[in-house]
Design goal:
Helices cover 28% and strands 20% of the residues. The longest helix has 19 residues, at 201-219. The chain has 6 helices and 10 strands, in the order E-H-E-E-E-H-E-H-E-E-H-E-H-E-E-H. The strands form 3 sheets. It has a 5-stranded parallel sheet, with helices on both faces. The protein has a 3-stranded mixed sheet with strand order 3-4-7. The protein has a two-stranded antiparallel sheet with strand order 9-10. The protein has helices at 21-28, 65-75, 96-103, 120-125, 142-153, 201-219; strands spanning 2-8, 32-38, 51-52, 62-63, 84-93, 107-112, 117-118, 129-132, 186-187, 190-191. Helix 3 links the parallel strand 5 (84-93) and strand 6 (107-112). It has 2 domains: 2-153, Alpha/beta knot, CATH 3.40.1280.10; 167-224, Trp Operon Repressor, Chain A. It binds S-adenosylmethionine (SAM). Residues 87-90, 112-114, 116-117, 132-134, 136-141, 144 line the site of S-adenosylmethionine (SAM). Residues 5-225 form the tRNA methyltransferase TRMD/TRM10-type domain.
């Protein structure tokens, strides 16, 4: 079973949206599990301090390496084979391909940064894989961890009702998805494209592929390279 462990200063935020709808049902059905650990539980002073000022000066605070390492080692001892991920705007962008890899693995240990970030030495010492969810900066890693987990967990067999529908989704075959339509036949003067109601599955598939190509060319030409 895919098992996710989150290390965070805000464990009460979890499961949040991950406990709703198909993901929540998948959790209840035992297809995956989630546990959030309070980083402050590993602090060693009575104020439960987990951060300190940046060496070399500058604004903000940095998460201490010794406390974070202790939390990681407790949640995932060295023989735990799950990847150790640090949510980080400096990380490799999250992709559908990486989500698939993670979904077929044993799970993930995910560290949510806060403040200015995390001491570099613990990133190196615990070989944390830095993963970004986009080129912008959030206040903390919790929402980013939820994004990563939502992308991964929906790919776990059994979590989504109809796995077939996944194959044509955006990014699955290097293209963006074609436009979707449903009833009513006419909406504010706009009709459903006639080909989609023709019943000719060959023509429909061809039309959808062409639409996917055109959309990808217009919006994400980088995907076609
Ligand atoms: N000083 C850091 C920098 O400039 O790269 C930003 C720190 S940010 C305020 C605090 C935490 O939010 C990060 O340590 C990270 O865990 C999380 N975070 C922010 N933006 C993120 C993103 N785009 N992807 C993943 N995590 C992000």
């Amino acid at each position: 079973m895919f098992s996710a462990d989150i290390i965070t200063l805000f464990p009460e935020l979890f499961p949040g949206p991950l406990g709703a709808s198909v993901l929540g049902r998948g959790m209840n059905d035992g297809l995956w599990s989630l546990h959030a650990t309070q980083l402050r539980d590993f602090a060693t002073d009575r104020h439960r301090t987990v951060d300190d000022t940046p060496s070399g000066g500058g604004a903000g605070m940095v998460l201490r390496p010794d406390i974070l390492a202790q939390a990681i080692d407790t949640v995932a001892p060295p023989d735990d084979l799950r990847p150790r991920i640090l949510m980080s705007p400096r990380g490799k962008p999250l992709t559908q391909a990486r989500a698939h890899e993670l979904a077929t693995g044993p799970g993930a240990v995910i560290v949510c940064g806060r403040f200015e970030g995390v001491d570099q030495r613990v990133i190196e010492a615990r070989q944390l894989e830095e993963v970004s969810i986009g080129d912008y900066v959030l206040a903390g890693g919790e929402v980013a961890a939820m994004v990563l987990l939502e992308a991964v967990v929906r790919l776990i067999p059994g979590v989504l009702g109809a796995p077939d529908s996944r194959d044509e989704e955006s990014f699955e075959n290097g293209l963006l998805e074609y436009p979707q339509y449903t009833r009513p036949q006419t909406f504010e003067g706009r009709d459903i494209p006639a080909v989609l109601t023709s019943g000719d599955h060959g023509r429909i598939a061809k039309w959808r592929h062409q639409q996917s190509l055109e959309l990808t060319q217009a919006r994400r030409p980088d995907l076609l390279k």
